[in-house]
Amino acid sequence: MDNKDDLEQGPTLIGKDNKKKQKDPPGIHNIGDPIMRFGKRFRFSFWYFLFIILLLLGFNTLFLQNRNVTTIDYNQFKELIAQDQIVRVQIQDDKLLGYSLTKEELIQQTQETNTIDTSQLLSMNTYSTYAVDDPTFIPLLDESGVEYYAAPEQSPGLLSTLLSYLLPMVIFIFIWRYLFSKMGQGGGQGVLSFNQNKAKIVAEGDTNVRFSDVKGVDESKLELEEVVDFLKHPQRYSDIGGKIPKGVLLVGPPGTGKTLLAKAVAGEAKVPFFRMSGADFVEMFVGVGAARVRDLFRQAKEKSPCIIFIDEIDAIGRTRSQGGLGGNDEREQTLNQLLVEMDGFDSSSKVIIIAATNRPEILDQALLRPGRFDRQVLVDKPDLEGRVAILGIHTKNIKMDSTVDLRKIAQSAAGLSGADLANIANEAALLAVRANRKTVCQQDFEEAIEKSIAGLQRKSRILSESERIKVAYHETGHALTAYMTQGAPPVSKISIIPRGFGALGYTLQYPTEDRFLMSESELLGTIDTLLGGRASEELIFSEISTGAGNDISRASDLVRKMITEYGMSEKYRNITLPSTTNQGFGGSREYSEEAQQYIDSETARIVNERYRLVLEHLRKNRDLLETIAQKLLVDEVIDGDTFKTLAQNVTPQ
Ligand code: ADP
Ligand code: ZN
Ligand code: MG
């Protein structure tokens, strides 16, 4: 039984370092990087772009605007001819162009300067107008001795026309090719590989992390060793026809070493390690995340055997919305793609997906189905021994003097995670440097711990000393009651290490699985055990707390069920009182108002009676309660055998 004590629940416990970006050791490449690079290059190319535009504008003024064309009325056009202002006329269908220079004059001027000089060109006036059907026009031209012809003007007109057509085309092609080269860099798949990660995902065989670098999570390590074995000797498993789980979900509070464990698996198995964080998939554009998932799996399959590690999978894996509204299309598409990809390969492809989360409760159920993340590994906060070992690892390279006692430090660091401890070791070293010392002393560690704990207490992640004492007595109350009660299963573990997901401490009993059959005395034993926590608090502190809220509601539920479902009450012996049939609004009772009153009063009576009994038993064994609780405060965890030995000389009922 896991007696959840809901003194503190909720989001304060989780997600503390969700946003903290960890530095990757060289050699591990996050697949999410390339898009950021795209952004940088894009800004760079913007200047290119601007340059081209300016160039175009320049050409335009040079060749198109410089001819100083004045559009005038036909009337005026004729007048200018008469005044010899126009000496040459070009006829283009119904359009007339009049020039103030003859061809010879123009060529002569050009040859003189030997260049087509803009200023010279400007010295030539050009007039344009639209022709009317005027039979006197040609005679007028002949009469005034004006050159006229119907051919289109040569240079610079041709050049400018050419440029005005060609230049935009060239620019367009340039942009087009630039975009394509960006899109296609991944695998030459053009537009479709737009989201491909460009960074070489170095199939890094060695993450430089070994299992020996991870301490205090031995049970989790044991489970992951099997994964390593599979990656090392896939043949052994396929020969026998066995299947290894495709997906392993690491679940645990922040900073307990989930990421570290995944790296250790890769390091031990010496296989490529593709690492991506859930947030890397979530992009602004719909479809990008899904494409990245596809790409990730494609590359992984090429490099198999290998490990895909999706850190903080809750970013994409959270439960899909039920209704159409308020959904996040992009994330859901990404999640769907992930599910499809996971279904799309079998264990023979030797790709193992490891994911980590500190919020398993919000994950979509589809992710946890067999064939996906069907194996869950709990990565819990370390106990005392674990903390000593973790401190050992993180102080390996720190010069410490003889005053340092790691065990003592670990003792005062109850409830802290591996990451917190690593932090403390570093902080202690910094304190020593600040004090101008060459070695770190115990005092530094104590200061570092105080700092860290004060910070964490503010975030209410760990218990104050008085709360710890309360939890210790509460849990001992459960355990001792279970021991004294006939029907209750034996205690296998008592712990006051907060579990991160709401429980402040817990008492574990065997058998933990659901029972198919429970006798009346076993039910009563379970109820007693549930009430034991609060009874112990009342006995020791003469005051009860909210810590037993969950216990109380489970105990009263059970009593109510005994009366209504199991027919175990005095008055309605062997009669069920089906509480609600879910027909109609609010359901309907199938028993009388009187029966309802009986149920309520009988529930209260039984709970009170059991509670008084439990309190009495504990009072008789108060010394034992004290002894065990004090031991629990020191050791934090008491296993079943130790508990049995301690509880042996209990005063029987
Ligand atoms: P999580 O992924 O569970 O949030 P990390 O694996 O990122 O935690 O841990 C962060 C750092 O804390 C690690 O790089 C390591 O230095 C330290 N650490 C955490 N847990 C352990 C552990 N069990 N043993 C050794 N070091 C640990
Ligand atoms: Zn409890
Ligand atoms: Mg992590």
Structure notes:
The structure is a single chain. By secondary structure, the protein is of the alpha/beta class. It is 49% helix and 9% strand. It has 23 helices and 13 strands. The protein has helices at 34-65, 74-82, 103-113, 118-122, 137-144, 157-184, 218-232, 234-239, 258-269, 278-281, 288-302, 314-317, 329-343, 384-394, 406-411, 418-434, 442-458, 465-484, 520-541, 549-564, 593-620, 622-635, 640-647; strands at 69-71, 88-92, 95-99, 126-130, 147-149, 247-251, 273-277, 306-311, 351-357, 375-378, 491-495, 506-509, 637-639. Strands 1-4-3-2-5 form a five-stranded mixed sheet, covered by helices on one side. Strands 7-8-9-6-10 form a five-stranded parallel sheet, with helices on both faces. A three-stranded antiparallel sheet has the order 12-11-13. Mean pLDDT is 77; it is low at 1-42, 184-202 and 581-587. The structure holds adenosine-5'-diphosphate, zinc ion and magnesium ion. The site of magnesium ion has 4 residues, from helix 9.
